[in-house]
Specification:
It is a single chain. It contains six helices and eleven strands. The chain is an alpha+beta fold. The protein has an eleven-stranded mixed beta barrel with strand order 1-2-3-4-5-6-7-8-9-10-11. Strand 5 and strand 6 form a beta hairpin. The chain is elongated. It starts with a helix and ends with a strand. About 7% of the residues have low confidence.
Amino acid sequence: MNGLRIAAVIAASSALWSSPALADGFFSGNWYITLGGSGISAPTFEGSKDRKLFFQPIISVGRGGAPRFSSRNDNPSVAIYDTDVLRAGVVGKFVRPRDAGTDDALRGLSEVKWGAELGGFADVYVTDWMRARGEVRQGIRAHDGLVADVAVDAFADIAPDLRVSAGPRMTFATSGYTTTYYGVDAAESAASGLSQYSPDGGVTSYGAGGAITWNATEKITMSAFTEYKRLAGPAADSSLVRQKGSENQLLVGVSASYRFGVSFD
């Protein structure tokens, strides 16, 4: 099933890139590239009660001008279809490895290898001050599940170069993901002291986030942000979370990015 999902994602991406509408002059015109990074204080793993500092890259590519709104939740993406109302394309995410060295709470559990998630995204500008974004990604190597993120952000400029934004978030995952990160089989139960647990798919978290963004120059953007999520369903019911972790997950951080244009005319 995992192979079929990966093949479907690759086939869909290839079809988009090779379709006549996109192939005819697709690479012509003006493009933007945004590169940067975020410093984040967050739980050591999703479900942990301990915290750690992380670095997260910022990568975004698209045609025309930069999008009206972007969030630190947006994974690295390439917009294939880009209008004032809808942006859609390919999205990817690097998945960090996880083992007993990550957190003492993981001792006795199987290692999760590094990997990636590949899929598609869509941004819908509901109004001039609200954006809804959805991502659906297939796990590769680290896990074999599907993960879907949905976020809605309202944003307003409180000064010419200063913007505030906030909104709700929700994540859904299939059992291929939840089993990898929240499941505990018999051998792991004996080694870790955790109760056995075999999760299904479902809504794994919900919450909200907010940010203050400053356009320091025409090309440089800085931001301070916070995100809160409450683990739910198959994640919250895990013995790993109930016995050694926490359902409440808080993230705070700062970011900086640089945007530049590229023309292929």
